[in-house]
Specification:
globular, 201 residues
């Protein structure tokens, strides 16, 4: 593992580096990848370098790369943003840029890792997110972790020539759902509170 910060079963989260910029730029300019994001402008190398520099300095933003433990390959990034110490809440965002790694559970695992970090290390009480109505894969992943639908912003996002609803979801401290057991193991009773993420040593 290369500079791990939070370590999961199949992935780990690490700080982004400037050497990641070419890969980040390719993702953010791929229309399939950004279909569920707010971004709609093309990004050049300078813009991505500024992004990486910003996430290391902004006290209200934590962005980490998602890397596979098997080969250290970077496949996406995950973030807590708009961190508010008074209200003890933050927004959540995620991007899996490597399309061949979609629907393999990596996004769910990364979500669980950083949400747990938000509750256990940052003392957050609530984490929220916005997801477009057509992003059913994302909604399923968030629900597996414990996010619940809190409301709908009607026709708030324009994509592909039409307006879509934006769904607001949130999770409170104590609502985090444990990961299911590995295949072949007896499933434990479902818990609303997961064991802590293993920090890197």
């Amino acid at each position: 593992m290369k500079n791990p910060f939070l370590v999961g079963e199949r992935i780990y989260l690490r700080p982004l580096e400037r050497t990641d910029v070419p890969l980040l730029q390719a993702w953010i300019n791929d229309q399939d990848v950004i279909r569920n994001l707010l971004n709609f402008r093309p990004m050049n190398v300078q813009a991505e370098e500024e992004f990486v520099d910003k996430v290391t300095r902004d006290p209200d933003l934590i962005t980490l790369g998602i890397a596979l433990r098997s080969d250290d390959r970077l496949i996406g990034n995950v973030a807590l943003h708009r961190i508010q110490s008074r209200d003890r809440q933050a927004g959540f965002g995620i991007l899996i840029g490597e399309k061949e790694e979609w629907s393999r559970g990596y996004g769910t695992e990364a979500t669980r890792l950083i949400v747990r970090y938000g509750f256990d290390a940052l003392n957050l009480h609530r984490i929220w997110l916005h997801v477009l109505e057509h992003n059913e894969r994302g909604r399923r992943a968030y629900e597996k972790v414990g996010f619940r639908v809190e409301g709908v912003l009607r026709q708030s996002a324009f994509r592909e020539g039409r307006y879509w609803d934006t769904i607001t979801m949130g999770i409170l401290r104590g609502e985090l759902i444990d990961a299911p057991p590995a295949s072949g193991q007896n499933p434990p009773a479902r818990k609303r509170r997961s064991a802590r993420a293993r920090p890197a040593r």
